[in-house]
Design a protein that fits this description.
Layout lengths: L1 H5 L3 E6 L6 H14 L4 E5 H11 L14 H21 L4 E5 L3 E4 L2 E4 L1 H10 L3 E6 L2 H9 L11 H19 L6 E5 L4 H9 L6 E4 L11 H15 L5 E2 L17 H20 L2 E5 L7 H12 L3 E5 L7 H5 L3 E3 L2 H15 L1
Parallel strand pairs: 1-3, 1-6, 2-3, 6-7, 8-9, 8-10, 10-11, 11-12
Antiparallel strand pairs: 4-5
Helix pairs in contact: 2-8, 3-4, 4-5, 6-7, 7-10
Length: 347
């Protein structure tokens, strides 16, 4: 442990439930880091446990690994963590990423990854990231999986599982005073790359009129939002776009299903976390529309003492839009020039 604390290798802990597309994101992240000349090693604890079983001829099978004795699983994971610890102590890498799960929802019960809680304080990572995804996407992926399909997980069970994973991530990070973040798995890998390697990184939360971006009618506005985020990211790579988690609209006909309501409530809870962890906010209106989301998010961020920058495409803006803004711009180009100058002045 002493050697781990002396070397300059950054240790990052990754959490997130099965099916949240964590693996896909991390593959992209490795390429992004390597393009920037960073030497990064990724350890996937679950895959390593299965490989360890092959070596000692005590195999664990992916399709029913969670039926194994919890003591055996903890011992295997502890052995995996010891291997990772040696790599951290070597100091050969700019960063080591530990991809892990903190709990599983298996046969209608939670299985906690005990070894992870024992080794987290030993590694004492610089940051913890918990990946999340839309519940519909997770259910769709798991239903087609050999292991998870028979579990017949519905939206409400997945929501409960993902919420529990986030709570466990928070319970690990806060007592150790380790920064922790919730990241949509459909986000750009540039977000994590920036947060890992730039200690001065500023995390932005993008506020856009999501309801008006849906369907064929929102196609043009979606393109404008995508272009805005891409251009903003050239100045500040760490920006969270909530539209990466899509849930669709609720039709108000007095017949809304409990599952549908649960999905929307869960996504709103995720948005609250994105707001809470953001350093600053940026509002982009591709055209002037009424947005309940922005109407809630903008004053919430602003009243927490954070800066909020607004792009409003018309000359006149409502009093709330101005009151809860640090600065209002008539076009995105003016915002980008200001943000670049602001960033340069901070150096």
């Amino acid at each position: 442990m002493e050697a781990m604390m002396k070397n300059k290798t950054i240790v990052i802990w990754i959490a997130g439930i099965t099916g949240c597309r964590q693996k896909k994101y991390l593959t992209k992240l490795l390429w992004s880091c390597r393009r920037k000349g960073k030497k990064v090693k990724l350890f996937r604890t679950g895959d390593m446990m299965i490989e360890q079983g092959k070596i000692i001829r005590r195999p664990l099978f992916r399709k029913n690994i969670l039926d194994a004795d919890p003591w055996i699983l903890d011992e295997r994971k502890a052995a995996v963590f010891e291997i990772i610890q040696r790599h951290v102590s070597s100091g050969d890498y700019d960063a080591i990423i530990i991809s892990d799960h903190l709990c599983f929802f298996w046969k209608d019960d939670f299985i906690e990854a005990h070894a992870s809680f024992s080794y987290f304080p030993i590694f004492r990572p610089q940051k913890l990231f918990c990946f999340v995804d839309g519940p519909q996407s997770i259910v769709s992926k798991l239903s087609d999986d050999e292991s998870w399909g028979p579990q017949k997980l519905d939206l409400q069970k997945v929501i409960l599982w993902q919420s529990t994973e986030m709570i466990l991530a928070k319970s690990l990070a806060l007592p150790q005073r380790i920064p922790w973040f919730v990241i949509p798995s459909a986000e750009s890998p540039e977000v994590l790359c920036e947060l890992i390697f730039n200690p001065e990184a500023e995390l932005f939360f993008a506020m856009v009129p999501i309801t008006h971006l849906m369907g064929e009618a929102g196609e043009e506005d979606r393109a404008k939002v995508a272009n805005f985020i891409e251009s903003f990211r050239k100045i500040h790579p760490a920006i969270i776009n909530p539209y990466t988690i899509q849930v669709g609209k609720i039709e108000i006909n007095g017949n809304v299903s409990d599952e549908r309501l649960a999905v929307h409530r869960h996504v709103l809870a995720l948005n609250d976390r994105f707001i809470d962890q953001a350093d600053s906010g940026v509002v982009f209106m591709p055209r002037v529309v009424t947005s309940d989301g922005i109407g809630y998010e903008q004053p919430t961020i602003f009243r927490r003492g954070k800066e909020v920058f607004v792009v409003h495409p018309e000359k006149d803006a409502g009093p709330h839009k101005v009151k809860f803004a640090s600065k209002v711009f008539g076009d995105s180009g003016s915002l980008f020039r200001f943000m670049q100058e602001r960033k340069n002045n901070k150096k």
